[in-house]
Amino acid sequence: xxxxxxxxDDEPNLAQLLAMALEDEGYEVTIALNGVDALxxxxxxxxxxxxxxxxxxxRMSGLEVCQRLRHAGFDNPIVFVTGMxxxxxxxxxxxxxxxxxxxxxxxxxxxxSIIAQLMDQRYQRVA
Length: 127
Description:
alpha/beta
């Protein structure tokens, strides 16, 4: 069974590009276009093995999504993909519970490499 990734970004074109890059690597991908929708999709089937999360979104920020998920017991990896790249933003992302933090613009292979590493770590823990 393919591993499932939830991509959360309020820019539909970027969300679709991320999804295509991840599907090319063999992942199943679901897209959410805001934080509220992301929270609904996290607890539905298929349960995501990893979340790629934009940090700056309307209605509910990626930071709040991450914090809520961690508080609710979601322990699968979360990777922020964001334009907010200074040190304080990165630190806040990791404090919220992120496992990775990539600053836009980035190369697809940077994201897919981090995801592969986090997936390997996750499934080594479970095995």
